[in-house]
Each structure stands twice: as structure tokens, then as C-alpha cells.
Amino acid sequence: MTQIVAHRGASGTRPENTLPSFAEAVRVDSDVIELDVHLSKDGHLIVMHDEDVERTTNGKGLIREKTLAEIKKLNAGSWFSSAYQNTKVPTLKEVLDLLVMRNFRGVLTIELKTDHYHYPEIEMKTATLMTSRAWPFTHWYCSFNIKSLDIIHKLEPQTQLDLILSTSNKKVIEALDRSYIEGIHPKMDWVLKNEASLADLPLAIRPWTIDEEALVKKCVALNTTGIITNFPEKAQQYIRNAKRSK
Asked: Per the database record, which ranges form the GP-PDE domain (predicted)?
């Protein structure tokens, strides 16, 4: 079965990396929910994709230069739709609480956003939270930064890790060199370029970002482990269509 990974939640129909987006990803039975984590100035785990707040809020500046209180004053939904004008930037703990409340039983994959700036102790803070109790869902980690995965592996040696990449074969080799890395999350361009050798690669492959039906069908045909999509509900239908047309 092809895993549906909800990219920043159901970010095609809700403001990305917000509680409405994650709630919708649960509602449509996503297999995996993906989110991004940064650290605020005062050490809180903040869920947002970019290092700065400008694209997805009404604020300006870097997450690492803002306190949690300052971040909580921001509007994180109006850029997407006026229906979400009261939406706030969530902390990782708030997302976890939502997933528990919504009875999520799939996988949460946490992207450690350390490829542009390696936040001191972000791996330790994240691992401390994730191991603080037993969650009713599974959690994995992923990152563009191989060093972050090396660090988190020492903290949680049994937790699944995946390396994110664009089109770099060097990164694939780095993943193959580490027995504790389960898979790669490459850009779809890499998959298309290397499709002839995918079956021989001893790694799970979950390409991003797959929103078009033709690409979903291509991934099904190539038997990728999963797809990372902004539209998990549509992707499920596309997969059903692909299987019916075989």
C-alpha cells in the first residue's frame, strides 16, 4: 500500500503547519502527517516551514529571534483564507495534543529544520518531548541535515529516520552509509531521473511534492513506499484510480 504523507498537514486545503491543517489530515485518514520544527528565542518548539515568519503570517523576522509570546500574537491563517483569520502558529506540543484528541493512529514525521540554521539542542528538546510519554501514534524524524539525523539517532536509537533531498545522489550515498536511515524523501525529479534503478535501492522512497494525478499514478507504478502530498484526500482517490486502471 502506498503511504499518503500529508505535507504540512492537509496544506492544499488548509493553512500549512496549523492545527486546522493537521485536523483535516486526520479526518481524511492520512497514513502519515508531516510537519516542520524550529526553535524560538526562548527555546520552544515551533511548527512552521520557513526560518522566518513572513510567508505564512502577518509578521516579519526570524523564528529564532522571537519569543513564544511574540509568535503567538501572529496571524497564521489569513494569508491562506479569511476563514482562518484566528489561526495561530502552533507549538509541537499543541500539535501532539490535537493528534491525541483526534484519535490519530498513524505516523507523525517531524522534520528537523536545521538545513539553513542548526538550532542548538533542537534534537535534544524534540526527543525529550517525544519520549516524555507513550503516544497513541508512531513518530519518525526526517531532515535535509544528515548531522541532525546522526544526533537524533543517538537520542532515540529505535526511531525511524529519513533523509530529505532534492536531486543529490551524494545524499543517497550518505543515507546508504548509515544502517539506521530507513529511507529517503527525494524531489520527484530525482525519482524520474533514477526510475530504472529504484527497485535495487535498499531504502524506502517517499517523493515530494506529489499533487497531480499523473505523478501519483507514476509513483504507484514505480512502487514507491509513499508519496508526500499537499492534498491527501485527492491523492487517496488518485491511488484508487491508479489501481483500478491496472
From this structure: 2-239
Q: Which of 44, 49, 118, 139 is catalytic?
A: 49
Catalytic member of 7, 38, 139, 153: 7
Q: What is the model's pTM?
A: 0.98
Q: For position 38, which CATH number holds?
A: 3.20.20.190
What is the SS3 assignment for 28? coil
**Residue where the block lists cell 543517497:** 172
Q: Which domain holds residue 217?
A: 3-245
Task: Name 214's Cβ contacts closer than 8 Å, sequence gap at least 6.
Answer: none
Beta strand pairing status for 32-39 and 45-47? antiparallel
- Rounded Cα distance, 227 and 129, in Å: 27
Render each residue's pLDDT in the chain as its tens digit; 246 residues.
Answer: 899 999 999 999 999 999 999 999 999 999 999 999 999 999 999 999 999 999 999 999 999 999 999 999 999 999 999 999 999 999 999 999 999 999 999 999 999 999 999 999 999 999 999 999 999 999 999 999 999 999 999 999 999 999 999 999 999 999 999 999 999 999 999 999 999 999 999 999 999 999 999 999 999 999 999 999 999 999 999 999 988 876
Annotation says 116 is catalytic: no
139 is catalytic: no
